Amino acid sequence: MVEKRIQPLARDAMAYVLAGGRGSRLKELTDRRAKPAVYFGGKARIIDFALSNALNSGIRRIGVATQYKAHSLIRHLQRGWNFLRPERNESFDILPASQRVSETQWYEGTADAVYQNIDIIEPYGPEYMVILAGDHVYKMDYEWMLQQHVDSGADVTVGCLEVPRMEAVGFGVMHVNDKDQIIDFVEKPADPPGIPGNPGFALASMGIYVFHTKFLIDCLRRDAADPNSSRDFGKDIIPDIVKNGKAIAHRFTQSCVRSDFEREAYWRDVGTVDAYWQANIDLTAVVPELDIYDKSWPIWTYAEITPPAKFVHDDEDRRGSAVSSVVAGDCIISGATLSNSLLFTGVRANSYSKLEGAVVLPSVKVGRRAQLKNVVIDHGVTIPEGLVVGEDPELDGKRFRRTENGICLITQTMIDKLDI
Known about the structure:
28% strand, nine-stranded mixed sheet
């Protein structure tokens, strides 16, 4: 690994977060919000990880492109990310698809979402652009990637995960030589190319790209003039550079941020209900794979002013208690029992109820004697008294969104349809 420069390159960079995705595989969790705005980890939203990585890396100019169902995302960004100040040469721009280029044209792809805002980017004068996906959970110092980009003389540097070769079939895969120069880019290949010297693994794209700004803008303008382009980084911009320029792969293990408690490089696409449930429940482990308690690399978010969590009642069958669980502020566990569960802000769990393997989003009310196992409960849901979920798979499947792994997603609309 190269030694860090005294003058960080991040000071001359702008982070541009692509946060317009539909996130349809999260089913009803994205009925009213974009995937980057989905709650994660008890306090944060998914987008906070990419934004926190940028801020902690030293990047002080940030843009976020939004599109689908953007209201809750924009509201979160306004509340939680309004501390960057122009008088300190900082900026934070929320960039909805606003038909600025054409009255009939929304963002047509990831590249177009940057192209349409060139006139906003250029006046800031960033030397480098760090293009980020806004819907993954990970900790990464982008300064290392910027340094590799400059040192290698690359036209583009692509962030990559090392994954078992046959697990890479769902990704864009980088075929590299022994110097990590990308010689081919293959989208979701049936037979992914292995890494030189480590053929059992492949390099999968993380959707993270570093460019010199002037080079990127030239690419985007050429792409916008091509009637056959799909206006996408992964489908158009990157393959063209691989073919006609110099593209370098940056391995996540070189820049991932790990505390003393994290053994492996942690990256998750929480894009399905099962993956979302698992990543949240993983945080309840004694030593979780992702350390959100690392003060040297904080996950910044909207810091609500809330009272502390409270546990009340101490009768034999009515004891407010939690084991191997994460409980956010303003929760009241009133004679309920929690195990291996994660509760967001403002949850009320009432007497004799039992939650096991539950991911409970903010402002949920759990009625007395409810028995909930392996569930994700959406924001603001009121669970009726005595409801049982997690014991009868057939009944659960009729009432709620039940995954192949047996996780039940519960929304208020589903509750309102119950005949109980």
